[in-house]
Amino acid sequence: MAHELEQKALASYLEDHNLKHTKQREAILSIFLDIKGHITGEELYQRVREQHSNIGYTTVYRTMKLLCDAGLASERHFDDGITRYEIEHEHHDHLVCLRCGKIIEFECQKIESAQDEIVKRHDFQLLRHRHELYGHCSECQGKERGGS
Amino acid sequence: MAHELEQKALASYLEDHNLKHTKQREAILSIFLDIKGHITGEELYQRVREQHSNIGYTTVYRTMKLLCDAGLASERHFDDGITRYEIEHEHHDHLVCLRCGKIIEFECQKIESAQDEIVKRHDFQLLRHRHELYGHCSECQGKERGGS
DNA sequence: ATAGGTGCAAAGGATTTGCATGGAA
DNA sequence: TTCCATGCAAATCCTTTGCACCTAT
Predict the structure, then answer these.
(1) What residue ranges define each of the domains in chain A, with the CATH number in brackets?
(2) Which of residues 63-82 of A touch B (CB under 8 A)?
(3) Are the C-beta atoms of residues B101 and B84 closer than 8 Å to each other?
(4) Tens of pLDDT along B26-80?
(5) In what order do the strands lie in the sheet with B73-77?
(6) Is the CB of A57 under 7 A from strand D?
(7) Cβ of residue B57 near strand D, that is under 7 Å?
(8) Smallest Cα–Cα separation from B111: which of A108, A47, A6, A16?
(9) What angle do helix axes B109-121 and A109-121 make, rounded to 10 degrees?
(10) What confidence tens digit (pLDDT) does each residue in A51-88 have?
Protein backbone atom coordinates (compact mmCIF):
# COMPACT_ATOMS: atom_id res chain seq x y z
CA MET A 1 0.00 0.00 0.00
CA ALA A 2 1.30 3.43 -0.88
CA HIS A 3 1.63 6.04 1.83
CA GLU A 4 1.69 3.34 4.43
CA LEU A 5 2.72 5.60 7.25
CA GLU A 6 -0.06 8.05 6.70
CA GLN A 7 -2.64 5.35 6.18
CA LYS A 8 -1.63 3.90 9.50
CA ALA A 9 -1.87 7.29 11.13
CA LEU A 10 -5.36 7.67 9.73
CA ALA A 11 -6.35 4.19 10.88
CA SER A 12 -5.21 4.81 14.40
CA TYR A 13 -6.89 8.20 14.50
CA LEU A 14 -10.13 6.57 13.40
CA GLU A 15 -9.83 3.84 15.99
CA ASP A 16 -9.05 6.27 18.76
CA HIS A 17 -12.11 8.30 17.90
CA ASN A 18 -14.52 5.44 17.30
CA LEU A 19 -14.82 6.33 13.67
CA LYS A 20 -14.91 3.94 10.80
CA HIS A 21 -12.28 3.05 8.30
CA THR A 22 -13.84 3.24 4.86
CA LYS A 23 -12.62 2.77 1.31
CA GLN A 24 -13.52 6.39 0.60
CA ARG A 25 -11.36 7.75 3.36
CA GLU A 26 -8.45 5.59 2.35
CA ALA A 27 -8.81 6.55 -1.30
CA ILE A 28 -9.11 10.26 -0.63
CA LEU A 29 -6.10 10.25 1.66
CA SER A 30 -4.07 8.39 -0.93
CA ILE A 31 -4.96 10.74 -3.76
CA PHE A 32 -4.45 13.77 -1.58
CA LEU A 33 -0.96 12.60 -0.62
CA ASP A 34 -0.03 12.09 -4.26
CA ILE A 35 -0.45 15.78 -4.85
CA LYS A 36 2.55 17.83 -3.99
CA GLY A 37 1.18 21.33 -3.78
CA HIS A 38 -1.96 23.04 -2.57
CA ILE A 39 -5.21 21.71 -3.92
CA THR A 40 -8.77 23.02 -3.80
CA GLY A 41 -11.71 20.88 -2.78
CA GLU A 42 -12.97 21.01 -6.33
CA GLU A 43 -9.66 19.87 -7.83
CA LEU A 44 -9.31 17.11 -5.34
CA TYR A 45 -12.86 16.00 -6.04
CA GLN A 46 -12.05 15.82 -9.75
CA ARG A 47 -8.98 13.71 -9.14
CA VAL A 48 -10.86 11.43 -6.83
CA ARG A 49 -13.59 11.07 -9.43
CA GLU A 50 -11.12 9.88 -12.05
CA GLN A 51 -10.51 6.77 -10.02
CA HIS A 52 -13.66 6.48 -7.97
CA SER A 53 -16.62 7.81 -9.89
CA ASN A 54 -18.94 6.94 -7.06
CA ILE A 55 -17.40 9.19 -4.41
CA GLY A 56 -19.37 12.37 -3.82
CA TYR A 57 -18.40 15.95 -3.29
CA THR A 58 -19.64 15.81 0.25
CA THR A 59 -17.41 12.94 1.20
CA VAL A 60 -14.34 14.71 -0.13
CA TYR A 61 -15.12 17.77 1.96
CA ARG A 62 -15.94 15.78 5.05
CA THR A 63 -12.86 13.64 4.67
CA MET A 64 -10.55 16.60 4.26
CA LYS A 65 -11.96 18.07 7.44
CA LEU A 66 -11.26 14.76 9.11
CA LEU A 67 -7.71 14.63 7.78
CA CYS A 68 -7.13 18.12 9.15
CA ASP A 69 -8.38 17.03 12.56
CA ALA A 70 -6.15 14.01 12.34
CA GLY A 71 -3.16 16.25 11.66
CA LEU A 72 -2.50 14.85 8.21
CA ALA A 73 -3.66 17.85 6.22
CA SER A 74 -4.19 21.51 6.78
CA GLU A 75 -6.51 24.06 5.31
CA ARG A 76 -5.28 27.26 3.73
CA HIS A 77 -7.29 30.28 2.69
CA PHE A 78 -5.80 32.64 0.18
CA ASP A 79 -7.34 35.77 -1.24
CA ASP A 80 -9.60 34.12 -3.76
CA GLY A 81 -11.72 32.72 -0.97
CA ILE A 82 -11.38 29.12 -2.08
CA THR A 83 -10.22 26.63 0.52
CA ARG A 84 -7.04 24.79 -0.37
CA TYR A 85 -5.51 21.79 1.35
CA GLU A 86 -1.88 20.96 1.82
CA ILE A 87 -0.01 18.14 3.48
CA GLU A 88 0.57 19.09 7.08
CA HIS A 89 4.20 19.96 7.69
CA GLU A 90 6.27 22.35 9.73
CA HIS A 91 5.27 25.98 9.94
CA HIS A 92 5.68 28.11 6.86
CA ASP A 93 4.04 30.94 4.93
CA HIS A 94 3.33 31.58 1.27
CA LEU A 95 4.13 33.61 -1.78
CA VAL A 96 1.23 33.55 -4.24
CA CYS A 97 1.49 34.49 -7.91
CA LEU A 98 -1.56 36.46 -8.96
CA ARG A 99 -1.09 35.55 -12.59
CA CYS A 100 -0.38 31.83 -12.77
CA GLY A 101 -1.55 30.89 -9.31
CA LYS A 102 1.76 29.33 -8.33
CA ILE A 103 2.24 29.00 -4.60
CA ILE A 104 5.72 29.07 -3.09
CA GLU A 105 6.40 28.32 0.56
CA PHE A 106 8.82 30.25 2.71
CA GLU A 107 9.82 30.52 6.31
CA CYS A 108 11.65 33.33 8.00
CA GLN A 109 12.95 33.38 11.52
CA LYS A 110 13.34 37.15 11.45
CA ILE A 111 9.65 37.58 10.84
CA GLU A 112 8.73 35.07 13.48
CA SER A 113 10.70 36.87 16.13
CA ALA A 114 9.40 40.26 15.04
CA GLN A 115 5.90 38.85 15.43
CA ASP A 116 6.70 37.71 18.92
CA GLU A 117 7.72 41.23 19.81
CA ILE A 118 4.52 42.69 18.48
CA VAL A 119 2.42 40.15 20.27
CA LYS A 120 4.20 40.86 23.55
CA ARG A 121 3.82 44.58 23.09
CA HIS A 122 0.06 44.16 22.83
CA ASP A 123 -0.13 41.53 25.56
CA PHE A 124 -1.64 39.14 23.09
CA GLN A 125 -1.57 35.39 23.24
CA LEU A 126 -0.68 34.27 19.73
CA LEU A 127 -2.39 31.13 18.49
CA ARG A 128 -1.68 31.20 14.80
CA HIS A 129 -0.96 33.59 12.02
CA ARG A 130 -1.28 34.03 8.38
CA HIS A 131 1.25 35.74 6.21
CA GLU A 132 0.89 35.84 2.46
CA LEU A 133 2.82 37.77 -0.13
CA TYR A 134 0.98 38.39 -3.38
CA GLY A 135 2.60 39.42 -6.62
CA HIS A 136 4.00 38.09 -9.87
CA CYS A 137 6.46 35.24 -9.98
CA SER A 138 9.61 35.44 -12.07
CA GLU A 139 8.01 33.60 -14.99
CA CYS A 140 4.99 35.83 -15.07
CA GLN A 141 6.66 39.21 -14.82
CA GLY A 142 6.93 39.79 -18.55
CA LYS A 143 3.43 38.70 -19.42
CA GLU A 144 0.37 40.86 -19.87
CA ARG A 145 -1.87 38.26 -18.34
CA GLY A 146 -1.19 34.83 -17.12
CA GLY A 147 -2.43 31.38 -17.72
CA SER A 148 -1.13 28.47 -15.79
CA MET B 1 -21.40 69.02 6.61
CA ALA B 2 -19.43 66.48 8.59
CA HIS B 3 -16.44 64.82 6.97
CA GLU B 4 -16.20 67.65 4.54
CA LEU B 5 -12.83 66.65 3.16
CA GLU B 6 -13.88 63.14 2.37
CA GLN B 7 -17.21 64.23 0.94
CA LYS B 8 -15.30 66.52 -1.38
CA ALA B 9 -12.96 63.73 -2.34
CA LEU B 10 -15.94 61.58 -3.17
CA ALA B 11 -17.59 64.36 -5.16
CA SER B 12 -14.54 64.95 -7.24
CA TYR B 13 -14.05 61.24 -7.81
CA LEU B 14 -17.63 61.00 -9.02
CA GLU B 15 -17.25 63.97 -11.31
CA ASP B 16 -14.01 62.67 -12.75
CA HIS B 17 -15.61 59.38 -13.55
CA ASN B 18 -18.93 60.65 -14.85
CA LEU B 19 -20.77 59.13 -11.96
CA LYS B 20 -23.58 60.67 -10.05
CA HIS B 21 -23.64 62.21 -6.64
CA THR B 22 -26.56 60.75 -4.73
CA LYS B 23 -27.94 61.09 -1.22
CA GLN B 24 -27.29 57.40 -0.65
CA ARG B 25 -23.62 57.66 -1.46
CA GLU B 26 -23.20 60.70 0.71
CA ALA B 27 -25.06 59.07 3.59
CA ILE B 28 -23.14 55.81 3.41
CA LEU B 29 -19.80 57.59 3.28
CA SER B 30 -20.76 59.69 6.26
CA ILE B 31 -21.87 56.74 8.38
CA PHE B 32 -18.85 54.72 7.33
CA LEU B 33 -16.51 57.50 8.39
CA ASP B 34 -18.16 57.73 11.79
CA ILE B 35 -17.05 54.22 12.52
CA LYS B 36 -13.55 53.97 13.83
CA GLY B 37 -12.74 50.31 13.41
CA HIS B 38 -13.38 47.61 10.88
CA ILE B 39 -16.96 47.03 9.90
CA THR B 40 -18.70 44.29 7.96
CA GLY B 41 -21.13 44.98 5.14
CA GLU B 42 -23.92 43.68 7.32
CA GLU B 43 -23.08 45.94 10.27
CA LEU B 44 -22.71 48.93 8.06
CA TYR B 45 -26.04 48.15 6.44
CA GLN B 46 -27.68 48.03 9.88
CA ARG B 47 -26.24 51.40 10.83
CA VAL B 48 -27.29 52.92 7.56
CA ARG B 49 -30.77 51.52 8.07
CA GLU B 50 -31.14 53.25 11.42
CA GLN B 51 -31.02 56.58 9.69
CA HIS B 52 -32.15 55.74 6.18
CA SER B 53 -34.58 52.89 6.21
CA ASN B 54 -35.00 53.07 2.50
CA ILE B 55 -31.40 52.29 1.55
CA GLY B 56 -30.91 48.71 0.40
CA TYR B 57 -28.26 46.16 1.05
CA THR B 58 -27.18 46.31 -2.54
CA THR B 59 -26.48 50.00 -2.44
CA VAL B 60 -24.32 49.63 0.63
CA TYR B 61 -22.23 46.96 -1.05
CA ARG B 62 -21.99 48.86 -4.30
CA THR B 63 -21.11 52.08 -2.55
CA MET B 64 -18.39 50.47 -0.48
CA LYS B 65 -16.87 49.11 -3.63
CA LEU B 66 -17.00 52.59 -5.06
CA LEU B 67 -15.38 54.09 -1.97
CA CYS B 68 -12.60 51.54 -2.26
CA ASP B 69 -12.04 52.51 -5.87
CA ALA B 70 -12.05 56.14 -4.84
CA GLY B 71 -9.35 55.42 -2.28
CA LEU B 72 -11.51 56.36 0.69
CA ALA B 73 -12.01 52.86 2.05
CA SER B 74 -10.34 49.52 1.83
CA GLU B 75 -11.54 45.97 2.05
CA ARG B 76 -10.07 43.48 4.49
CA HIS B 77 -10.62 39.75 4.63
CA PHE B 78 -9.92 37.93 7.85
CA ASP B 79 -10.31 34.28 8.60
CA ASP B 80 -14.05 34.25 9.06
CA GLY B 81 -14.55 34.98 5.39
CA ILE B 82 -16.64 38.09 5.94
CA THR B 83 -15.56 41.23 4.15
CA ARG B 84 -14.76 44.13 6.43
CA TYR B 85 -14.15 47.74 5.49
CA GLU B 86 -11.81 50.21 7.07
CA ILE B 87 -10.93 53.80 6.37
CA GLU B 88 -8.06 53.84 3.93
CA HIS B 89 -4.83 54.84 5.63
CA GLU B 90 -1.16 54.03 5.52
CA HIS B 91 -0.01 50.45 5.33
CA HIS B 92 -0.49 48.27 8.38
CA ASP B 93 -1.35 44.74 9.44
CA HIS B 94 -3.63 43.25 12.08
CA LEU B 95 -3.89 41.36 15.31
CA VAL B 96 -7.27 39.67 15.63
CA CYS B 97 -8.75 38.39 18.87
CA LEU B 98 -10.50 35.08 18.28
CA ARG B 99 -12.70 35.52 21.32
CA CYS B 100 -14.04 39.06 21.29
CA GLY B 101 -13.28 39.89 17.69
CA LYS B 102 -11.21 42.93 18.57
CA ILE B 103 -8.91 44.06 15.79
CA ILE B 104 -5.67 45.86 16.57
CA GLU B 105 -3.48 47.40 13.90
CA PHE B 106 0.28 47.20 13.85
CA GLU B 107 3.14 48.01 11.57
CA CYS B 108 6.63 46.69 11.70
CA GLN B 109 9.55 47.82 9.62
CA LYS B 110 11.54 44.73 10.50
CA ILE B 111 8.91 42.52 8.96
CA GLU B 112 8.62 44.70 5.89
CA SER B 113 12.31 44.47 5.18
CA ALA B 114 12.40 40.75 5.85
CA GLN B 115 9.62 40.39 3.33
CA ASP B 116 11.62 42.31 0.78
CA GLU B 117 14.46 39.88 1.21
CA ILE B 118 12.22 36.89 0.69
CA VAL B 119 10.65 38.39 -2.36
CA LYS B 120 14.06 39.12 -3.87
CA ARG B 121 15.27 35.65 -3.12
CA HIS B 122 12.39 34.20 -5.11
CA ASP B 123 12.61 36.81 -7.86
CA PHE B 124 9.05 37.80 -7.11
CA GLN B 125 7.45 41.14 -7.80
CA LEU B 126 5.52 41.99 -4.67
CA LEU B 127 2.19 43.73 -5.13
CA ARG B 128 0.58 43.40 -1.74
CA HIS B 129 0.60 41.23 1.30
CA ARG B 130 -1.52 40.11 4.13
CA HIS B 131 -0.25 39.46 7.58
CA GLU B 132 -2.61 38.60 10.39
CA LEU B 133 -1.88 37.39 13.89
CA TYR B 134 -4.70 35.47 15.55
CA GLY B 135 -4.98 34.82 19.25
CA HIS B 136 -6.50 36.11 22.45
CA CYS B 137 -6.23 39.71 23.51
CA SER B 138 -5.22 40.66 27.03
CA GLU B 139 -8.83 41.04 28.16
CA CYS B 140 -9.88 37.68 26.85
CA GLN B 141 -7.02 35.55 28.11
CA GLY B 142 -8.72 34.54 31.36
CA LYS B 143 -12.07 33.73 29.88
CA GLU B 144 -13.37 30.40 28.77
CA ARG B 145 -15.20 31.88 25.88
CA GLY B 146 -15.64 35.41 24.74
CA GLY B 147 -18.54 37.67 24.11
CA SER B 148 -18.70 41.28 22.94
C1' DA C 1 -33.81 63.74 -22.20
C1' DT C 2 -30.36 60.47 -20.94
C1' DA C 3 -27.18 58.10 -18.64
C1' DG C 4 -26.30 56.15 -14.46
C1' DG C 5 -28.35 54.68 -9.69
C1' DT C 6 -31.47 52.28 -6.75
C1' DG C 7 -33.99 48.49 -4.54
C1' DC C 8 -36.06 44.34 -4.65
C1' DA C 9 -35.83 39.63 -5.53
C1' DA C 10 -33.48 36.17 -7.50
C1' DA C 11 -29.00 34.23 -8.77
C1' DG C 12 -24.32 32.96 -7.72
C1' DG C 13 -20.44 30.08 -5.94
C1' DA C 14 -18.30 27.49 -2.31
C1' DT C 15 -19.37 24.74 1.38
C1' DT C 16 -22.54 22.40 4.67
C1' DT C 17 -26.55 19.89 6.17
C1' DG C 18 -30.91 16.75 6.20
C1' DC C 19 -32.17 12.46 5.39
C1' DA C 20 -32.75 7.81 3.78
C1' DT C 21 -29.72 4.24 2.62
C1' DG C 22 -25.40 1.67 2.96
C1' DG C 23 -21.61 -0.49 5.29
C1' DA C 24 -17.98 -1.12 9.23
C1' DA C 25 -17.64 -2.81 13.79
C1' DT D 1 -27.30 -5.15 15.07
C1' DT D 2 -25.84 -0.67 15.86
C1' DC D 3 -24.12 3.45 14.71
C1' DC D 4 -21.31 5.92 11.78
C1' DA D 5 -20.61 7.17 6.84
C1' DT D 6 -22.20 8.13 2.36
C1' DG D 7 -24.41 10.55 -1.48
C1' DC D 8 -27.81 13.13 -3.28
C1' DA D 9 -30.36 17.26 -3.18
C1' DA D 10 -31.54 21.07 -0.79
C1' DA D 11 -30.03 24.60 2.27
C1' DT D 12 -26.79 28.01 3.75
C1' DC D 13 -24.03 32.16 3.84
C1' DC D 14 -22.25 36.28 1.96
C1' DT D 15 -22.23 38.81 -2.05
C1' DT D 16 -23.52 39.99 -6.82
C1' DT D 17 -26.72 40.56 -10.70
C1' DG D 18 -31.12 41.33 -13.53
C1' DC D 19 -34.47 44.33 -14.16
C1' DA D 20 -37.98 47.90 -13.92
C1' DC D 21 -38.24 52.20 -11.97
C1' DC D 22 -36.06 56.52 -10.34
C1' DT D 23 -33.18 60.71 -10.46
C1' DA D 24 -28.95 63.53 -11.04
C1' DT D 25 -27.02 66.00 -14.70
Answers:
(1) 4-87 (1.10.10.10), 93-144 (3.30.1490.190)
(2) 77, 79, 81
(3) no
(4) 999 999 999 988 999 999 999 999 999 999 999 999 999 999 999 999 999 998 8
(5) B39-40, B83-87, B73-77
(6) yes
(7) yes
(8) A108
(9) 160
(10) 999 999 999 999 999 999 999 999 999 988 899 999 99
